[in-house]
Amino acid sequence: MVVLNRIYTRTGDKGDTALGDGSRVNKDALRVEAYGTVDETNATIGLARLHAEDEMDAALGRIQNDLFDLGADLCRPDPDRDSEAKYPVLRMTAGQTERLEREIDAMNEALEPLRSFVLPGGSALAAHLHLCRTVSRRAERLAVALGRAEAVNAHAARYLNRLSDWFFVAARIANDSGRADVLWQPGANR
């Protein structure tokens, strides 16, 4: 259980922060950038949920919870040393990515194949989901870069890769199952 009885601690006033294992790093460290961008993705989902209803809202809520799991995973360095931790370490699992894949497949069944790229927009929900997609792509790029520099749970980047796909398909669903998609017209304004 998490208990937050004090919001500010002053421990990061000099530009460093604690990771999940207690070690301290600069606030602009790649690991902090990665899980910070996961948090930013979560905030964009909060905006999208203002326009979502029923099943879409519930699915976005599940993803928000997953993103807290993902942040916890990324803030804990060196997955190979998890057995040394005092408490169980929360890591992303294949099952979380597999759930996204099942949801993508189910949403995609209602869509006609694309014949052009989709411009971000259409309905308010679709526009917000496209923003979620682009921020999650940035989080993925940072997680991949982090994985080149340090040990990272492979399921973390895989989840982010699938998540941006989920947002793309969900945005098409939010655009009247693709009928209200705004399509790119190459060279239209030459």
TrEMBL record:
Where in the numbering of this chain does the Cobalamin adenosyltransferase-like domain appear? Answer: 7-173
Q: Which UniProt keywords apply?
A: ATP-binding, Cobalamin biosynthesis, Cytoplasm, Nucleotide-binding, Transferase
Q: Does the record carry Transferase as a key word?
A: yes
GO cellular component labels: cytoplasm
Any one Gene Ontology BP term: cobalamin biosynthetic process
Query: Where is this chain's protein located in or outside the cell?
Result: Cytoplasm
Alphabetically, the GO molecular function entries are: ATP binding; corrinoid adenosyltransferase activity
Q: Which InterPro entries match?
A: CblAdoTrfase-like, CblAdoTrfase-like_sf, PduO-typ
Catalytic activity field: 2 cob(II)yrinate a,c diamide + reduced [electron-transfer flavoprotein] + 2 ATP = 2 adenosylcob(III)yrinate a,c-diamide + 2 triphosphate + oxidized [electron-transfer flavoprotein] + 3 H(+); 2 cob(II)alamin + reduced [electron-transfer flavoprotein] + 2 ATP = 2 adenosylcob(III)alamin + 2 triphosphate + oxidized [electron-transfer flavoprotein] + 3 H(+)
Metabolic or biological pathway: Cofactor biosynthesis; adenosylcobalamin biosynthesis; adenosylcobalamin from cob(II)yrinate a,c-diamide: step 2/7
Q: What is its EC number?
A: 2.5.1.17
**Primary residence:** cytoplasm
**Highest taxon, organism lineage:** Bacteria
Q: What family does this chain come from, according to its entry? A: Belongs to the Cob(I)alamin adenosyltransferase family.
Extract the PANTHER family matched here: CORRINOID ADENOSYLTRANSFERASE (PTHR12213), CORRINOID ADENOSYLTRANSFERASE MMAB (PTHR12213:SF0)
What protein is this chain from?
Answer: Corrinoid adenosyltransferase
Which species expresses this protein natively?
Limimaricola soesokkakensis
